[in-house]
Design goal:
With 164 residues, the protein is mainly α. It folds into three domains: 36 residues, no CATH class; 80 residues; 43 residues, no CATH class. 74% of the residues lie in helices and 0% in strands. It contains seven helices and no strands. Helix 4 packs antiparallel against helix 5 and helix 6 runs antiparallel to helix 7. It is extended. The N and C termini lie far apart (46 Å).
Length: 164
C-alpha cells in the first residue's frame, strides 16, 4: 500500500482500481500474522539441518528449482515481455528458498551469540582443524574466504572488465 501511495505522490501516477489490491495485501498480511501459529524454538544448527533434509522440504526445494529453470529457459524468453508472472514467479520462488537460508543462518548466529556455539557444524573447517595446525588453518581460511567473496562480488557486480 505504501508503494502505491509513494508512486502516486512521488511519480505522480494515477491511482486506479488495482490500488485496491494493495489494500487487500495489507489486510491479508495482517490477518496471517495475527493468526499464525507459534514457531517452535530451534535448539541447534543440526535441528535446522534435520528440518531442511526432510523429504517434504527437499521435494519443495527441487520442485522450486525445476520450475525456476523452466521459467528462465522456456517461458521468459518467449513470454517475459507480455506475462508479468514469469518474472515475478522466478523472484518469488527463489526468494522462498533464500529466506529459509537466511533464517537458518540467523538461527545459528542467535544460538552462537547466546552461548551455544554452533560453529562445530562447519564440518569441513573442523576436519581441516583436526588434520592441520590451527595456526596454519585460520589464516589460510580467512584469506581464502575473503578473496573468494571479493572475487564473487567482482563477478556479480561486473567490476572485472572481460574485454581487456
Amino acid at each position: 500500500m505504501g508503494q502505491v501511495t509513494l508512486a502516486h505522490i512521488i511519480l505522480r501516477e494515477r491511482l486506479h482500481i488495482f490500488g485496491l489490491g494493495s489494500v487487500l495485501c495489507v489486510v491479508g498480511s495482517t490477518t496471517i500474522v495475527l493468526h499464525a501459529p507459534q514457531e517452535r524454538e530451534i535448539e541447534s544448527v543440526k535441528e535446522v539441518w534435520d528440518l531442511a533434509t526432510e523429504p517434504a522440504f527437499l521435494f519443495y526445494a527441487f520442485l522450486v528449482m525445476a520450475i525456476v529453470l523452466v521459467l528462465v529457459f522456456h517461458y521468459i524468453p518467449e513470454y517475459g515481455q507480455t506475462h508479468i508472472m514469469s518474472y515475478i514467479g522466478v523472484c518469488s520462488l527463489v526468494s522462498s528458498l533464500s529466506v529459509m537460508s537466511v533464517k537458518a543462518l540467523g538461527i545459528s548466529l542467535k544460538l552462537t551469540l547466546s552461548g551455544m556455539i554452533q560453529l562445530i557444524y562447519l564440518n569441513y573447517l573442523n576436519k581441516a582443524l583436526d588434520t592441520f595446525n590451527t595456526v596454519v588453518v585460520s589464516p589460510i581460511y580467512n584469506v581464502m574466504f575473503k578473496s573468494l567473496t571479493i572475487l564473487a562480488s567482482m563477478i556479480m557486480f561486473k567490476v572485472i572488465n572481460y574485454s581487456s
